[in-house]
Structures are given as structure tokens and as C-alpha cells.
Design a protein that fits this description.
With about 260 residues, this protein is of the alpha+beta class. Helix content is about 30%, strand content about 20%. Strands 3, 4, 5, 6, 7, 9, 10, 11, 12 and 13 form a ten-stranded mixed β-sheet that branches. Strands 1-2-8 form a three-stranded antiparallel β-sheet, covered by helices on one side. Helix 3 (about 85-95) crosses helix 4 (about 170-185). The chain is globular.
Length: about 260
Amino acid sequence: MKNTSQTAYFKNHAWQLYENGYCAIPLEPQTKRPVQSVDWMKYCWKQPDPNFITTQIERHPNMGVGLACGRQTVAIDIDAKDARNVAKIKDVAFEIFGETPLIRQGENPKIALLYRTSEPVISCRTPSIDIIGLGAQLVAYGIHPKTKREYRWIGQSTPTELPCAALPSITNVKIWNFYCLLAQEKFGVEHFEMCLAYDKINYTPPMSSISVLFTLLFRSMLFGKENAAFQAQKILTGKYASTGTGLNLELKAGGRMIEL
């Protein structure tokens, strides 16, 4: 087996990812965690500048590579353990969002589908499907902490080969339609509610994404879009800290939780 313990992942991939329009950040070796000393969350909102990439290559050449998501890209992370269920969820995603050529796999049969954002997308987590957007990142290159093998891109291309601009675009409305279609196909459910679950990572009451979006809408009207974007970044950074995860959600129909 190839010795990957000292592979220079960040050095080998960061510049090409930058040139292709992705937000590359360094990750601790064999983990999914961003390097703690790096202020990475701001790159969920904008692409890093060349100085950032140069500095991180010099300091962290052997680190893994994550893609800060939310403004440039968003990932549909399918965490189902059954291969047939993964395939069904992927088919629904392709129907709603379009067929992405970028499919990443860490632990078989789980996969992540990478798309381009046409508007800011807030992260959310459900038992088997995570939307990786603002305040979160997707591991692109490195060693999976459980399998001890390299992450693989098993679709038609890789982020170092394909510019971000060439990806199908995604919106918040499409994400809602995605959840609705899954609920209908799997459970015959026409109506369900999406509830915020208690934050098990920070042990804090959940933050309502709806209230945040309304707050930002009013700030945008009163103080302008730039001020609203700054406040959104501040809120999400304070909520997610350095966990790189999103809002924890539960889907309920008829009073019981459903797992898609």
C-alpha cells in the first residue's frame, strides 16, 4: 500500500484549487478538522487571496485539504450506510440539482456531491444527509480518519481538473425541494416539518436559520448588503466556532422523526 503519511496534500493541490475558484484551507493530518491557527471561516464567504495560499503552503505543506463551503460551493454529503439508499439519494440529488461530475468518497458507500452556489447556503445536518455550506468545510484531499485511506474523487472529474464555474448551481429552494422529494418517495409523505435539534457539539440552544435570515434581510434593507454579509459571517462564526459543522436538524412527519 502507498505510504501516504507524509504526502504533501496542501502543497500539491492548493494552488490548482485556488486557480479553479475553490476555497482551499489546511486540515489537521488524518482528521476532518481545520488547522486551529487558521482563520478559515471567512473563506466560506470569499475565495482566499494568493498570499493566504502561499503562506499556508509554506507552513502546512503536508496538511490535508478542505474546501470552505457556503458562498462558492456546497456539498450534499450522503452519510447513509446502505449502498442502495446512497444510490437512491444520489439519484434524487441529480434530478433536483443536476448531475455533478465531482463525487468524493471517504468511507464506502458514503459519498459527497459537490456543487456551485448561486447564493449563500447555510449548513444543516440530518441523520443521513448533510448540507455542507456556510460555516462548514468538505475534506477534498487527505487521509480518512477511520479507514486510514485517501479520500477519492470517483465521479467524472476532480476539483483540481474542473473549475468551480463549470459545476451545476444550487439554491436554497432546490435544497428544500430535494428534501421534499426524498420524503415523498421514501415515506409517501406530502407534508413534513424541519425542526432544529439541540446542538450536541456546543451544548447550546439551537439557532433558528429562519430568524437569522430575517435579521439579515432587515439589516440589508437598513444598512446595505455589505453590512448584512458582515453580520451573517459574525453570527455563523460565533455559532459554529471551529467545529466546521452546521445546524442540526430533524425531519418530522405525523409527530415522528423520519430519516431520509
